[in-house]
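Worked Example 4.2. Consider the chain below.
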Amino acid sequence: MNKHLKELIELSQIDKAIDSYNPQIEAADKKVAKVQRKIDAVQAELDKLNREIEENEEKIKAFEEQIKVLNDQLADNAKKAKEISTEKEMKALQLEEEIAKEKLTFANEEIERLQGINETKRELAKEEEAKLAELQATFDEVNKEVSAEKAEIEASKADLFTKRQELSRDIEQKVLAFYEKIRVWAGNTAVVPVKKQACYGCYMKLNDKTYAEVIKADEIVNCPHCGRILYIESVTEEA
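Applying the procedure from the previous section yields the following structure tokens:
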């Protein structure tokens, strides 16, 4: 087999091995991201509950201030009642008192209702906080496992990178540049085997002349259809 072809096949296999780790890294990152999404969802729900509780507390304060004003108004009306001299004035004062008492009843009912809602929401908030603590513990555990897994992958990739650098130094630069040029668009299919007289990059059938050249392996042969570098896999295995 042509020396350059053999080197390119080996280099291509190393590149494939390096890139094969990418899906593993992505899968590991997805594990962390999945737990993080759950944490974000629970945190968002907890923030919403706390925000609603705070808004209801503001409403309760407003009603309490209104109750104070109404009580002061009723106290003033009680003083005015002693000074009233006409029936018309008495009726007007009674009407004011009725309206004030209705407002007092409504304010007290609203305070009671809002306090009940907040009590429920605080219980829900406690549940969300418990979920958040549990998810955070899970996140820390998963993150630790993923970090160890990725460290192992990076160590393996580093070994392959070293092998690639060593091999690249031995390959003639023109041949290496030719390979890298094809790899820009073909990726890890820059060098592909021929099976059943077809290129396993584009799956197009080769003519007899090209196929014979690939079998001889005296020179680097490109697929006439896609331009990938071709070789016979069985020959490579024997080599």
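Residues 87-170 form the longest helix (84 residues). Confidence is low (pLDDT under 50) at residues 235-239. Compare this with Example 4.1 before moving on.
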